[in-house]
Write a structure and sequence with these properties.
Elements (H helix, E strand, L loop, with lengths): L4 H13 L12 H4 L20 E10 L6 E15 L3 E5 L2 E5 L2 E4 L1 H14 L3 E6 L6 H15 L5 E5 L9 H10 L1 H12 L6 E7 L3 H14 L8 E7 L5 H11 L3 H5 L3 E6 L4 H10 L12 H9 L14 E5 L12 H4 L1 H11 L8 E3 L5 E4 L10 H5 L8
Parallel strand pairs: 1-7, 6-7, 6-8, 8-9, 9-10, 10-11, 11-13
Antiparallel strand pairs: 1-2, 2-5, 3-4, 12-13
Length: about 400
């Protein structure tokens, strides 16, 4: 049975609200999860760079009680660091599991390895921050896909906060995301202050935008490095952040005239077909930055009178480009087009590389808004090849 769109959104909003779920402390003391010495790696412990080429920082609580360390959905007592490879299906105790190979490192060893990898490249670092309904495996899957798809010429770092990875866990995810604000902003500050980091490309998805935007504003205020000028290329994919809040605050705190003049820019990927953000709007009462929903009915009427699609976007401001992926939307929810649609993936690849103009972008009446149209040369069958997808699930 196909549900009407309004009913689907209402049901999804109930799921986002998390009214049927919560988080229990559980039958194990949290201190017991990390009591084993393997949760405290030895300084200088070797890590195979070729086998574990990607980097992560996480505030998730690790479970070190069994031979395989697992990163849980509980809050950790501190940020931990490590290396990982793209997750894969493996047989564990006779059962197939989707698993991320990783190893923990001491903070000093991790920063030393990140510097060595950055120095070997162009001084660029890509930092990926996930959104709602993610676990460590889905986060690392998406980060590995971004690395593979873009061919990024520097280290890729996944920051994993304790999302529940659960459809009914939105309320808990919001709580944990806000709880993690200090952890993430301190980590971003430390990264931005390294004199060997020449450019940071920040990519956030969904709820992750609510960590990224205020953290950048914080780093701009307090970082020793003037203007935090190495945080230059910011990409917000399907951002689940209040659109009016972004309009009010971005220009004053993140996109000041000096920072835009120094090359800072924000690219926002939006879609009117994004069911997850439609549900978030229903829950929060106001439109999200990643959804061009017309909250202002008068503006909607004016667009209809002009014969234009009824889509409303964040106001123009220096340094912001909005890419509307509605017409190339993919997946059950349309919430991850930058990883699932060949046309959107190709645009995203160019933005990461610093190429900010594509012939496939269609101009609109708003100079900062562009549409992506279906490309006959890239039918749906090309999505897998262009986006270099692996694994399962929508993400």
């Amino acid at each position: 049975m196909i549900l009407p769109r309004r009913l689907w959104v209402a049901l999804a909003a109930l799921a986002l609200a998390g009214c049927a779920t919560g988080v229990d402390y559980g039958p194990v003391r949290h201190a017991d999860y990390v009591a084993d010495a393997r949760c405290t790696p030895d300084p200088g412990a070797p890590v195979d760079d070729a086998a574990l080429p990607l980097f992560f920082a996480t505030s998730r609580l690790p479970d070190c009680r069994s031979p395989e360390i697992v990163l849980l959905s509980h809050r950790g007592d501190r940020v931990r660091y490590g290396r990982f490879a793209a997750p894969r299906d493996e047989m564990v105790s006779g059962k197939q599991r989707f698993r991320t190979p990783f190893a923990l490192q001491t903070p000093d060893d991790w920063w030393r390895a990140l510097r060595a990898e950055t120095d070997r490249r162009q001084g660029r670092v890509l930092l990926y921050v996930h959104g709602y309904r993610e676990n460590f495996e889905t986060t690392t899957k998406d980060a590995a896909q971004i690395s593979r798809m873009t061919g990024f010429d520097g280290p890729v770092v996944a920051y994993s906060w304790p999302s529940q990875g659960d459809l009914l866990g939105y309320g808990v995810d919001e709580t944990n995301m806000y709880h993690d604000v200090r952890n993430f902003r301190d980590f971003l500050k430390a990264l931005a202050e390294q004199d060997w980091v020449k450019e940071i490309v920040v990519v956030s998805h969904s709820l992750g935008a609510r960590l990224v935007v205020p953290a950048i504003a914080y780093v701009d205020r307090v970082a020793a490095r003037e203007d935090s000028s190495n945080i230059s290329n910011i990409i917000l994919a399907s951002p689940d952040i209040d659109r009016e809040t972004f309009e009010r605050d971005a220009q004053d705190f993140v996109l000041t005239a000096r920072r835009v003049a120094a090359g800072r820019r924000i690219t926002v990927y939006v879609s009117h077909s994004d069911k997850a953000l439609a549900a978030s709007r229903t829950l929060h009462g106001y439109p999200r930055l990643g959804s061009p929903y017309c909250f202002d009915t008068f503006a909607a009427d004016e667009l209809k009178a002009e014969g234009l699609p009824v889509r409303c976007y964040a106001a123009a401001m220096p340094g912001v480009t909005i890419i509307d992926t509605t017409d190339v939307s993919r997946g059950a929810t349309g919430h991850s087009n930058f990883l699932r649609s060949a046309v959107a993936c190709r645009d995203f690849i160019d933005v990461v590389a610093g190429r900010n103009e594509r012939s496939e972008r269609v101009a609109t009446k708003w100079p900062h808004v562009f549409l992506l149209r279906p490309d006959k040369a890239m039918p749906k069958e090309m999505d897998e090849a262009i986006c270099h997808r692996v694994g399962n699930g929508e993400g």
